[in-house]
Amino acid sequence: MTFTRTLMLAATAVGLSAVIASAEPAVIFDLGGKFDKSFNESAFTGAQRWAEENNATFREFELQSDAQREQALRRFAEAGANPIVMAGFMFATPLGEVAADYPDTKFAIIDMVVDAPNVRSVVFNEHEGSYLVGMMAAKASNSGTVGFIGGMDIPLIRKFACGYVQGVKAVNANATVVQNMTGTTPAAWNDPVKGSELTKAQIAQGADVVYAAAGGTGVGVLQTAADENILSIGVDANQNYLHPGKVLTSMLKRVDNAVYEAFSQGENLQTGFNVMGIKEGGIGYALDEHNASLVSAEMKAAVDAAADQISSGALSVHDYMSDNSCPVE
Amino acid sequence: MQRLPNWADIILVPFISLVLAAVISALVIFGIGQDPVAAVKLMVNGALGSTYGWGYTLYYATNFMFTGLAVSVAFHARLFNIGAEGQAMLGGLGVGIAALYIPWAHWTVALLGCSLMAAVFGALWAYIPAILQAKRGSHIVITTIMFNFIAAGLLNYVLVNVMRPPASMDPATAPFPPATHLPTLHELLAPFGISFSKAAPANFTVFIALLAAVFVWLLIWRTKLGYQIRAFGESDSAAKYAGIDPVRITVITMLISGALAGMMSVNTTLGEAERLILNAPEGAGFIGIAVALMGRSHPLGVALASILFGFLYQGGAELAMWMSIPRELIIVIQALVILFTGALDNMVRMPVEALFRKLRRSGDEQ
């Protein structure tokens, strides 16, 4: 009793409030954590780049639990942060509720569409980028068997898988693609140990290139692939540097660009539907000094040609989420 | 051995433990180059300095009160119910089924119906470990822990494969119909001219939790059953000799405990999320153990301890939001409090007891 009362007194006495500078932008990371070397870290990189270029600061929050999604949104909105960017489709339901309560605040959600006048929905054409890295996997594979390891089993990740398989089959119609998902819950985004196990299982089935679309779980995939001396493909951020010479390439999903752009537009954030594909520079594959020796000139030429065809519309990659099915296995 | 005076037992010992935890937390914060004083100010102000903060603190406290009471009731019969987490998950499933598939006319009836379903589901989940303990001697600590995992698996299956609306990526049910939405404190207090933050999730369930605390007090200290539970807890052989059926007491106690844990989900699922999400208890079932230990299994102590832990949760979230303290460190701070108040209770208690003995002896000599 006494202790609580002391606290109450202290609370009224302190009178310090967490006011932030007006219209600072904010970014909220999903459960995978800010330093997942993938999706969330890419969002952080974009925010960081904006802050350095404009010599400004931003607010950030790493979720500890699902219950904090709505809390973080409301807290930032009430404190006047604008715009508020959130990385991850799981924010859709809380944002749907919160957005209407703060009509003057602009929100940007990545990977999901929320239909509200003050929300910018950014979605990526991951199937296009996955197609490109699928082509590279098929070209780099000697065994004719390549692997795919997804994070949480959701349509979004199947979209990665489907694009990848299409790319593989475009190069080698007889290739086998071994597919595994890490789990069915958000914990699957951050389970490198399971990622490592799945990689070993796929190697046992003959896979010699493994593509991880699994957030923090991918760290385990890339590690095991490097240890077992096969090639891996990173995702979202450029992960080539993690194991130089062992990571064939990374499917770049420029979440950093999406965050950077939202922060740059600031309070006048353009709301509505925003698609980022190869054409818009939102999707691509990574080529740097860490994987230069792995990518032959022929491979690069083929992939770049496909990328050009995709941006011009001459080649269309099937989007799993358009009809929840994939034409190839 | 002489006992401590009541005030020292209930207030002094937990207070010293808290101070120790606070000092070490301050050192940790200092160690990563942040200002501990500012951190404390931020926590206190963020959790208790506004109706917004109170709304969150009370919301978390409501969860901990239910699970704390659940653990307390079982503990009076010397049964360690480590399974409040799983029972709360199943309670959430009960709430979800009731709210989605029964067309409720008004939130009051929905609240009654959903609470009943939550209690029944929670109680049934506690029934199996109870009967295994009573009839087969399977240790309740082991079985209830295991049942947490089974509950998580079951809920995962149901949410992903059965109750998830098609085309949704989130492992969660569809939102509950508006008629089932519980009024928040904002709506409840507005008619009295008290303006309470609209954003905070504290809702009508907080009163149910307080009612549950009164119920537990009446049950344990004012009924025959409560007497039997306590007698059984003190000595099962003596209780048996006095004609108390150990199987009956074990099962009934665990049913009540499970029902209380299950009712926690009324707060999280019906009151806050308004849909059933995966992992809705968020570890409250385990915090309940610390709350019950700190509250010495007395409903009043449990109520106060749950407010303290609600403060830690909400204050921790504020710390993570406004200071560059990584989220892992917030867990460290919360864990330190649990460690000192729960696990290391005797480390403080024994020196304090020795001190009191010494004082008393010197008092006698004079």
Tell me which protein chains meet in the greatest interface and how many residues each side has.
A-B, 46 and 50 residues
Average residue-wise pLDDT of chain B: 91
State the shape of chain A. globular
The CATH topology of the domain at 126-252 and 284-323 in chain A: Rossmann fold
The CATH architecture of the domain at 126-252 and 284-323 in chain A comes to 3-Layer(aba) Sandwich
CATH superfamily of the domain at 126-252 and 284-323 in chain A: Response regulator
CATH class of the domain at 126-252 and 284-323 in chain A: Alpha Beta
Percent range for helical residues of chain B? Answer: over 70%
Helix and strand run of chain A:
HEHEHEHEEHEHEHEHEEHEEHH
Number of contiguous helices of chain B: 15
Count of individual beta strands of chain A? 12
**DSSP strand count of chain B:** 0
- The portion of residues assigned to helices of chain A is 40-55%
Beta fraction of the residues of chain A? 15-25%
Q: What is the rounded distance between the termini of chain B?
A: 21 Å
Q: Assembly state here?
A: heterodimer
Structure description:
The complex is a heterodimer of chains A (329) and B (366). Chain A is α/β, with parallel strands linked by helices and 329 residues long. Chain A starts with a helix and ends in a 6-residue tail after the last helix. Chain A has a domain of 167 residues: Rossmann fold (3-Layer(aba) Sandwich). In chain A, 41% of the residues lie in helices and 19% in strands. Chain A contains eleven helices and twelve strands. In chain B, helix 1 packs antiparallel against helix 14, helix 1 crosses helix 15 and helix 3 packs antiparallel against helix 11. Chain B is globular and about 75 Å long. Chain B has 366 residues and is mostly helical. Chain B starts with 5 loop residues before the first helix and ends with a helix. Classes of the chains: A alpha/beta (329), B mainly alpha (366). Chains A and B meet through helix 1, strand 2 and helix 3 of A and helix 1, helix 2, helix 11, helix 13 and helix 14 of B.
